Automatic annotation (TrEMBL):
Name assigned to this protein: Activator of Hsp90 ATPase AHSA1-like N-terminal domain-containing protein
Region (Disordered): 159-195
SMART domains named in the record: TPR (SM00028)
MF terms (GO), sorted A to Z: ATPase activator activity; protein-folding chaperone binding
Length: 358
């Protein structure tokens, strides 16, 4: 069932006649303090729209409103939108080259959004950046200590998620092995009874069969993910260029018992992507391109794709990129690359559907 949008007709009517971005921000702050998050969000988004219509766009003011919108989305449990708001704010500040602007809140809020999305690796990275920004701008030591504690908290969550995923992988493998052994044991027991009986019992040679489709599935996934593309809101472009076969693990088998089929599969998909930055974000000599990695894992017969889902029942992903590259265009590509998660998952699910037809 589709979720109800956080901003409805009531909120849209509240901002319909606003013509000043600063007024929208001030009213949004009042509504936020009053606990009307949806109305506050509508005002912040309207403020961004109004400020961007000005001949000279006040980038820092836009970034502040985007940061406020991110906070509203976080509290309203829309982490994907909170992450996008925070990323747009970070890109805006970097484009303005305003070194005095405190970006710690932006990275902090994006880290919390990533935490809600179960992307603990990126959450740790962003929280560490928030701490770095806090030190750079000279925030009070109490705030720096708080952010440091948050980094450690997220590191523990990341380690726990990785441990849970590995434990679940082992359990799934053990379950599959146990099921095969159980079926083989039943066949052996039936054979013994047949030998002991005065009336021979004819065993069907098809009583237990297991077909390995791992090679087929790997080839299909390889073809499915290659060429997956994402158009960035900024105008940039990201494309999956190949499946990393050396790191990817794809296993699939169909077990048949007395005509009843059961599909077992487990996939850990590693892909290489290439991004090309939008001209508006790139500065200096080009080309402004970078490569990165995306790992989609915890794909199995008893999990499914679900943004922000539980790590025990949902697909998970991790992103990697060249940390030596810096600038607004890098930040934009890094953030937008996360959109490959649902597109790759959709392609993999297509392969699984074909497997079920085997």
């Amino acid at each position: 069932m589709k979720r109800r949008e956080p901003v409805q007709l009531r909120e849209l009517q509240m901002v319909r006649d606003l013509e000043d971005g600063d007024e929208a921000k001030a009213k949004g702050n009042e509504l936020f303090k009053a606990g009307d998050l949806s109305a506050a969000l509508a005002h912040y988004e309207k403020g961004v729209q109004l400020l961007r219509q000005q001949e000279q766009v006040p980038v820092v003011a836009v970034a502040t409103l985007l940061s406020n919108a991110a906070l509203c989305h976080l509290k309203l449990k829309w982490p994907d939108r909170a992450k996008k708001n925070a990323s747009m704010a970070i890109a805006a500040v970097r484009q303005a080259e305003d070194g005095a602007f405190d970006q710690s809140k932006l990275f902090y809020r994006r880290a919390l959004a990533c935490e809600q999305l179960k992307d603990f690796g990126t959450a740790v990275d962003d929280m560490a950046r928030a701490l770095q920004q806090a030190k750079k701008t000279g925030l009070p030591l109490a705030e720096q200590h708080r952010l440091k504690a948050e980094v450690e908290r997220l590191k523990k969550l990341r380690a726990s998620a990785e441990e849970s995923a590995e434990k679940r992988r082992r359990e799934q493998e053990n379950e599959r092995t146990a099921e095969v052994q159980r079926l083989q044991g039943e066949k052996l027991e039936a054979s013994k009874k047949s030998e002991a009986s005065s009336v021979p019992i004819a065993l069907n040679s098809d009583y237990l069969q297991e077909q390995d489709f791992s090679h087929w599935a790997k080839r299909q996934v390889q073809e499915a993910v290659k060429g997956v593309t994402h158009a960035c809101a900024s105008g940039g472009h990201i494309e999956v260029i190949e499946l990393d076969e050396s790191k990817s693990k794809i296993q699939a088998a169909i077990t048949t018992k007395k005509g009843t089929r059961a599909l077992y599969y487990e996939m850990d998909v590693h892909c290489t992507w290439k991004g090309k930055a939008a001209k508006g974000l790139a500065s200096g000599d080009g080309p402004h391109e970078m490569q990165g990695l995306i790992r989609v894992y915890n794909i199995a017969h008893d999990t499914k794709f679900q943004l922000g889902g539980d790590e025990n029942t949902s697909y998970m992903y991790q992103l990697g990129w060249d940390h030596r590259k810096t600038g607004p265009w890098v930040e934009d590509l890094r953030t937008e690359a996360a959109e490959l998660f649902d597109k790759i998952s959709e392609r993999v699910d297509g392969v699984v559907r074909e497997l079920r037809k085997k």
